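Researcher: Please generate the 3D structure of the following complex. Treat every line as part of one assembly.
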Amino acid sequence: MTKALVSVTGLDTTGIIAAVATKLSEMNINILDITQTILGGYFTMMMVVDLDGAQLDFEEINRRLQPVRDDLKMTIHLQRMDIFDAMHRI
Amino acid sequence: MIETGEILQTMRMIQEENFDIRTITLGINLLDCSDPDPERCAQRVYDKICQLAGNLVHTGEEIETEFGIPIVNKRISVTPVSLISQGDPRPIARALDRAAAEVGVNFLGGYSALMHKGATKADERLLASIPEVLSETKLLCSSVNVASTRSGINMNAVREMGKIIRKTAELTADSDGLGCAKLVVFANAVEDNPFMAGAFCGTGEPECAINVGVSGPGVVKVALESVRGQPFDVLAETIKRTAFKITRVGQLVAREASQRMGVPFGIVDLSLAPTPARGDSVAHILMEMGLEMAGAPGTTAALALLNDAVKKGGVMASNHVGGLSGAFIPVSEDIGMIEAASRGVLTLEKLEAMTCVCSVGLDMIAIPGDTSAATISGIIADEAAIGVINNKTTAVRVIPAVGKKAGDRVEFGGLLGFAPVMPVNPMKNDDFIARGGRIPAPLHSLRN
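Model: Done. Output below.
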């Protein structure tokens, strides 16, 4: 399983989770875990996803998230989970 | 499952605290490119580098994107050129520079000679060509090993290097002596160092190897902010924990790069390498420990603790640690060092003391343009003595600022930064340097 983190930050608005989840679903990317919080109107969400179902390379997935970034005016980062595992788990 | 706090900590390190992988350096053996005809040798060198390193930059960028960690430099280190050159080494230098540009790396190291015990004809030819080569090439870096604990200090080489540094400065005077920023004089040079300007691929290295240099002074500085006023035991433990985390990412990147390129993993170099950016300074770590500025009494002790704790934390995080591993203290590349040197708090003599306990030596220091070759040789000899006696790597990378005097400023730009011209002790040493010969190896070199 190739796990990745989708982190979404920016000013809160309606439909952020729906938009991101829909785009991921279109690419056949399964969501494994979600945490989300709002602090002072600032929206922060972290999704752990499985990229294996997508049949797309990493760059292409990242590219297809661009319209969601543009529509929502949110910062969306996609990065492999390995970096967090390496740093915080032995 | 990784917790949210842990994810945020990693992201903060990268986005706010300047944590990055400083370099992926591909070591390439060029011994099989040797040829009596310099042009043919140059062509073989060019072809081999382009073939083996063709996808280095792309691989680095791929890893950067996927893992979300900046990899600032992609570089190449090659077999010391004096070992493959059978005639004029300059065509090889030009080929190396062209190959580096072709594959898109930002530096290529290995225009080097290892002459800690004596010089071969090829070493002499290479040495003589360094000023011209560094003034004509852009991406090529040069290093010369003049001393080792096993063999002592080659004072003939030390004398020559004083002259060569001066000449290089003169030939590159229009760029503030930039040529000298690409030239390092070593004692106890290491074969797998991924950092420039001193990287080369030693003869004990495999055909090809991936060596990774991590960095992150900013991360250590921020971690220490949370233990203000606490005893040194806590300080050391905090640095160790931070170094461990940083190095684990270095190890991950090294493993990925090695797999993707089909090249064996060599080492992770656990160095804290500063840049002139705010929040990326080793000097600021020392200040966080309680010093008003780098250079204040206590600086050497602070640096010793830092250097040791970085190694202790990092060594458990990687299966092969090597290179220089420790804290770098380049003056022009560290905003805290620049400030301290500009105010006269940090002197050449204090820096020399600091090199006894850090990972390298007198690094990126601008000195007055009228500093004599013999004085530069004296500085090199002192550093080499520290390295030889203490069984560690030391180096000198000084830049005589032609036409400038102490207190003036030189600008190199980019990661190389800017620096105040630092005063040098004016007492003469010409008779000392003129002696030549070899300072014998110390007693503790006889360890068998």
